[in-house]
Amino acid sequence: MNLPPWSIGVFTSIDAGLGVHLEVAKELDIPSIQLHTPHAEGRTPQAAEKFLKQLDAFGIELTCVFGGFDGESYADIPTVERTVGLVPLASRAARLVEMKEISDFTRLLGCNTIGLHLGVVPHDTHSKEYAEIIEVTRQLCDHAKHNEQNVHLETGQESADALMQFITDMQRQNLFINFDPANMILYGMGEPIPALKQLGSLVRSIHCKDATWSQEPGKTWGAEVPLGKGQVDMRAYLTALKEIGYRGPLTIEREIPQDRERQKAEIQHAVELLVQLRKELLGQ
Ligand code: MG
After folding, report:
1. Cα of 283 to ligand 1 centre, how many Å?
2. Which one of 28, 77, 109, 180 is most buried, by most CB atoms within 10 A?
3. Closest CA to 40 of 83, 69, 12
């Protein structure tokens, strides 16, 4: 990756997921993106080649491809537990196969990182269910390793303690974290800044997203809000990123596809805020 430290990024989508389209990144002069994987029919060598040409023409670098699956719903926290990631048993085997295909497609895109929401990992680390999630995640990590990729787990559904324990138990060298401070708040999983400091060098990519706490954290959703308007203190967040030595992209995630104009305007504001903080904190 040739990007300078703390390059601005944005979460994008092609035909699935809630990110902005690549053209928006271009229009806002954003130099890097994460990509929500396209649907299976869009994961062909021809599609990869076309996308790479677009990236090249726009001068944009792809830093991570996020997996996602049909049937996932973030409607509320119990629904997330039932439907998201590799945790739900009924879809686990098929989703592992699909996630491996996404890893292969990511390789076609020349990208060395895949990310995903693993789902809500069982809390009892001595349970059979926990051991099974370790096993399926190892299979994914080992497949990614063949593709010379790291796997980044999106934060949110676990506390920092639980995530540290999980990664220790995994015993895989290519497993890291995509830290999302807003998710810690949305899911009620702890204050984001101490969590970030605790996870430290395991954090290899991040989302810049903001949120407000729910009245009943962990039971009901908090609210996702524009960057700088919520309870993630952005200056403290970037200061902590500096402290842990994070130099990767600052990838803005704002998922309100029902209002594309507002989404773009809010991302533009987020870019301005991050550029200003970067200047203050990194002097560039
Ligand atoms: Mg996120």
Report:
1. 27
2. 180
3. 69
Q: Are 283 and 275 in contact (CB under 8 A)?
A: no
Which pLDDT score, from 0 to 100, does residue 18 have?
76
Dist. CA 41 → ligand 1 center (Å):
24
146: CA distance to ligand 1 center in Å? 26
Cα 201 to averaged position of ligand 1 atoms, centre (Å): 18
C-alpha gyration radius of the chain: 18
Residue 15: per-residue pLDDT: 80
pLDDT digits 0-9 by tens, 124-176: 999 999 999 999 999 999 999 999 999 999 998 899 999 999 999 999 999 99
Q: How far apart are CA 22 and CA 284, in angstroms?
A: 25
Phi/psi for 57 (5° steps) reads: -65, -35
Rounded to the nearest angstrom, the distance between the alpha carbon of 198 and the centre of ligand 1 is: 18
Domains annotated for the chain, with CATH where assigned, are 8-282 (3.20.20.150)
Phi, psi of 84 (to 5 degrees): -95, 135
Query: Cα of 18 to ligand 1 centre, how many Å?
Result: 11
Distances (CA, A) of 8 to 47, 172, 220: 25, 29, 31
Residue keyed to tokens 């990007």: 3
The overall pTM is greater than 0.85: yes
Q: How far is the CA of 15 from the centre of ligand 1 (A)?
A: 18
For 37, 128, 176, 241, the CA distances from 140, given in Å and listed in that order, are: 16, 19, 13, 28
* Beta strand 113-116 pairing with 223-225: unpaired
Q: Computed from CA positions of residues 165, 168, 171, 176, in that sequence, does the dihedral angle turn out positive or negative?
A: positive
Q: What pLDDT, on the 0 to 100 scale, is given for residue 5?
A: 97
Cα 147 to averaged position of ligand 1 atoms, centre (Å): 24
State pLDDT tens for residues 216-225: 998 899 999 9
